[in-house]
Structures
1.
Amino acid sequence: MLCGITTQQQFAPTMTDFRPTYDKSFDRIAADRLPALLRAMPKAELHMHIEGSLEPELIFALAQRNGVSIPYASVEELRKAYAFTNLQSFLDIYYAGASVLLKEQDFYDMAWAYLERAAADNVVHTEMFFDPQTHTARGVPMETVVNGLHRACTDARSKLGVSAALILCFLRHLSEEDAFETLEQALPYRDKFIGVGLDSSEVGHPPEKFARVFARCRELGFHLVAHAGEEGPPEYVWSALDVLKVERVDHGVQSTKDPELMKRLAKDRIPLTVCPLSNLKLCVFPDLSKHNLGALLDAGLVATVNSDDPAYFGGYMNQNFTETFAATGLTRNRPGSSRRTVSRAASSTRPPGAPTSSGSTPSSRASDRRRRAAPPAAASPPAHRRWLPATPSASPAAPAGAEWRRA
Ligand code: ADE
Ligand code: ZN
């Protein structure tokens, strides 16, 4: 493995506490060679939402295949709408985009497109979030969602050499009762996902709202993660740790506001799955050069780089790595940084049990893998299957405009 970098807390195929090891060769890498190194090294992606990998082209193709219409005239027009001011402004369009997913094959095609893209970026292991409530609320059976995604994960191992696992996320703008119902519906497929997470609108929906359902998931033996400290305060990170008892914190970038929390995260080696381009697009930081990834690493935290919703935020894994390292000056020459901090940010690993590359270089394997699924056949949407921007939701807790509904 390049640079001898390992990290901890990847959940599949086995949960092992990996201690980072550092290779002195990292010190000798010149800054201008860093982008190529970042692209070439094998990586683990631990924070991405599979519905957030739905590219505008695939949204249009699936809408056509399923005979639904969407309120944008073209791919370009849809892409232009990706101008977000905060998390909620993104979630409104993200949930609407997911409305084109109806059949098991749709879920497979979405996941497969991401997995091929991840393989091209030399991601060798990925843990993919999915939001079943977004689909079951529209009448799509849990079985359809899980089976489509899981089949793509199985094929990824045999056809791409990528190990892929699923994490079921509860939507925090909905009730805990709804989360319990979702868990019940998912339990027949429990061998097809490795853990549970918590996502969607953060502020106003603290982790403790889901204390009982997470306790139940813990009893059932699932791995536990939660989004906390993306926009929400450090208190949410504390309660993700102490109430939900999560093993990783997704985002967690607001933790730098609380020195005690920073000490706790460092002491307990709780990984933060940081998503720099997401934070930029959602205006968590005004500029990538102001991102606090370097500060997190310098404080001794385990912070990893991930893509979150790559189709919406302008970059998959390699883009996140290269842009962030360039903008923040994360090289050994950065004042205050060290070989240790740079290595930890890279979170590069081949997980235990993952297939080996049979001697080929990462970049040659990447080019070998660039086979794309054929776009689905086009069909005219009948008028009765028109999708509309949502009217204010029946649920007072639901984010405004969260779905396009069938007319
Ligand atoms: N769902 C998809 N992306 C998300 C994010 N960045 N934060 C919270 N929920 C999400
Ligand atoms: Zn996320």
2.
Amino acid sequence: MDLVSKQKKTLFYKKIKKDILEKEYIQMTWTVNENCIKCKYTDCVEVCPVDCFYEGENMLVINPDECIDCGVCEPECPTDAIFVDTDERSKAMNEINKELSLEWPNISKKKQCFSKKEQDKWAKVKDKKQYLSKKPAPPEVIKE
Ligand code: F3S
């Protein structure tokens, strides 16, 4: 999706979100937690209608201002790494999502980030916050 289309789409959904918030139906967003670290399956980005995921070296984050709270990404994650920001398990990562989403590149297509074996190995590891890299994802190498 080009930048202008993304901005138009985000504005459209933000308007809907604002309308909903004004009616006080919901007041939350979604957050990627430490379960994503060193797994980065990226199934979540395929279903996001507003492309609000951003990619770091070993995990993704969600930009809370772009997220429209639809929740379609949550069931897609094989490691249960996406919770609402009000969930206890998200609290340590809410600020990190906000901060790093402003520094990391956008990701809107699923890709194989690590070997399946590595991903599945790290999916079983708990307390991974110590392994969080704040570096952005390395640029894609485009093969001619
Ligand atoms: Fe991470 Fe799960 Fe998405 S592991 S990249 S939040 S599918």
